[in-house]
Amino acid sequence: MSRIGVAFDKARADGRALLVGCMPAGFPTVEGSIAAMTAMVEAGVDVIEVEIPYSDPVMDGPVIQRASDIALAGGVRTADALRIIEAVAATGAPVVTMTYWNPIERYGVDAFARDLAAAGGTGLITPDLIPDEADEWLAASDAYGLDRTFLVAPSSTDARLAMTVEHCRGFVYATAIMGVTGARAQTSEAAPVLVSRVRAVTDLPVGVGLGVGTGAQAGTVAGYADGVIVGSALVRCLLDVPDLDTGLAALRALSAELAEGVRNPAR
Amino acid sequence: MSADALAAETAFPDAAGHFGRFGGRFVPEALVAALDELDAAHRAAMADESFRAEFAALLRDYAGTPSLLYAARRFSAKAGARVLLKREDLNHTGAHKVRNVLGQALLTRRMGKTRVIAETGAGQHGVATATAAALFDLECVVYMGQVDTERQALNVARMRMLGATVVPVTTGSRTLKDAMNEAMRDWVANVDNTHYLIGTAAGPHPFPALVRDFVRGIGDEARQQCLDLTGALPDAVTACVGGGSNALGIFHAFVGDPQVRLYGFEAGGDGVETGRHAASITGGSAGVLHGTRTYVLQDADGQTCESHSISAGLDYPGVGPEHAWLHDTGRATYAPVTDDEAMAAFELLCRTEGIIPAIESAHALAGTLKIAPKLAADLGREPTIVVNLSGRGDKDVHTAGNYFGVLDKE
């Protein structure tokens, strides 16, 4: 079983959901992003999702776009992202990577899988790679023992949902809403329906992302999902702050609130 | 049309939208259902006589096609070739783009959707989309990079007069590629009632094939007009290539005629060697951008590079996947044309024919001037070259006026 699978099992045994926190590599700087992700782990985030910034992130809303732009303007490169993954993995928390497909294709799919595994990454979430186009990634992830998380959406047909889940390893990412990343006032009504559709075809854990920003929302999602994935709300803690320490304090506070939320699932 | 004939006609791309190693779908799963719906609607529409008849009537009665094939005698004398201009500049809205937007607006209505969104660079596709939306009574939202809304204030006003909402995009480089990202984000969120009316033969399957099918009339007409006018097929067909819809539109009818050479001219900007250009095929590398695998301007980490061209319509860091495939197979030849070369050809057409071309189309004219002597030498006679004059230059008067220094000081 994958390391992520072990973490999900442990959380399930404890009667809670796993908290996955996302942060772009190199935001606000390479060192700053390592400090941020370390702070998230210390404050109770179970799994760190390191997003490798991309110039054209079509699944991301304004907060992560801005953070990605800042990271890229600061000169972060794929090799830096791998170093960040290695540093965060050294904290002992499982580290999953997320990025759009072109940076990986450019790096070389096999080389990226090799280097991601060597850095201690557990696997990859691919927001714009569907299994239909993923032959090279399927082979490379098998070769280096990496997890594969493809996305399912409320609009996925039953046939596509089953096909997509069949190609996943580690966990399945359910996009709670039809839209881009970004915290929303209310979590989605479509999400529980989608999660139950996934459960009908697999025993893999299901993480729900897009829209979660508070401890209460995390508790709601924890009521029906195995993992609660939070991105924009955490990233926003580090945007428009006077200095990194102020941002890290806000980041720790929100991480702790979310960690509390996933331990109090709404039933 | 029979199923077999349809299958033969659309042999490329394959069922999943691949042109050789290019094309396909690199999109969020949330969009796959909408792309499948669009693919099915496109196939059904193209096989439906009544749809084809309605599209043909609109092109004839509203857009003003078939456009003329005009023998440009004075320009020909300068070129050393018999140059026939496919006058897409005379279409309603001033370019070939009206064909694409009318086809996609018909398809939008057929799918029961009530809202269209579009991306635009200089504003030409935005104006064309707003035009079709007005005609079909569809809600219309156009995404345009903030930098471009400032450079192209007149086109913003035109879109608003036609009833469209123009949304300035302030992320990334604030230009066409970012407007495309924003349109994709809108589409993911509103796919139930919204069609993304993409402006060129790029993007995820089925867009490249669908756009090609709506603009292929350019080549179908030109091929017959050339036969009628000269009694033979042309020796070469030339077009400018940004995203590549006008070039595919005129190439497609000739792909099966091996004796007809196909040339696509990309925007070379300051020169490909300077790095300031928009020549994705001649100066880029294979990658994934905006949902498709194609040639892309990218850095060593796969981040998209900004493109540069005097022509806003060619200023895009990618190209339609069918062009990438025509390049790889050698069926078409692609070469860059610099800003200065394009502007020299622009001036030559103005002065010899009394036609002000779009700066985009001036790249095709400049490329034609470059290949004509070689073609004449190869053939041992005067070659016949069909040039796609894809648009008119009204929109470029300010840019060209500055370039030539013919604007009076205020």
List keywords for this structure.
heterodimer; A: 267 residues; alpha/beta; 9-stranded parallel beta sheet; 12 helices; 9 strands; 13% strand; B: 410 residues; 4-stranded parallel beta sheet; 47% helix; globular
What features would you describe in this structure?
The complex is a heterodimer of chains A (267) and B (410). By secondary structure, chain A is an alpha/beta fold. Chain A is 47% helix and 13% strand. Chain A has helices at 3-13, 30-42, 62-73, 78-89, 101-107, 109-118, 135-143, 158-166, 190-199, 215-222, 232-236, 244-262; strands spanning 18-24, 47-51, 95-98, 123-125, 147-149, 151-152, 172-175, 206-209, 227-230. In chain A, helix 2 (30-42) links the parallel strand 1 and strand 2 (47-51). The longest helix of chain A has 19 residues, at 244-262. The mean pLDDT of chain A is 95. Chain B is of the alpha/beta class. Helices cover 47% and strands 18% of the residues of chain B. Chain B has 17 helices and 14 strands. Chain B has helices at residues 3-9, 29-46, 49-63, 73-79, 97-110, 124-136, 146-151, 153-161, 176-190, 207-215, 217-230, 245-251, 280-283, 321-329, 339-353, 359-379, 397-404; strands spanning 18-19, 22-23, 69-71, 82-87, 115-120, 139-145, 165-169, 194-196, 236-241, 261-269, 285-289, 292-296, 332-338, 384-389. Chain B has a 6-stranded mixed beta sheet with strand order 3-4-14-9-10-13, sandwiched between helices. Chain B is globular, with a radius of gyration of 20 Å. Mean pLDDT of chain B is 94; it is low at 1-10. Classes of the chains: A alpha/beta (267), B alpha/beta (410). Chain A binds chain B through residues 54-59, 61-62, 65-66, 69, 72, 77-78, 100-107, 127-130, 132-133, 150-157, 160, 164, 175, 177-180, and chain B through 16, 24-34, 171-172, 177-178, 181, 184-185, 188-189, 191-192, 287-291, 296, 298, 300-304.
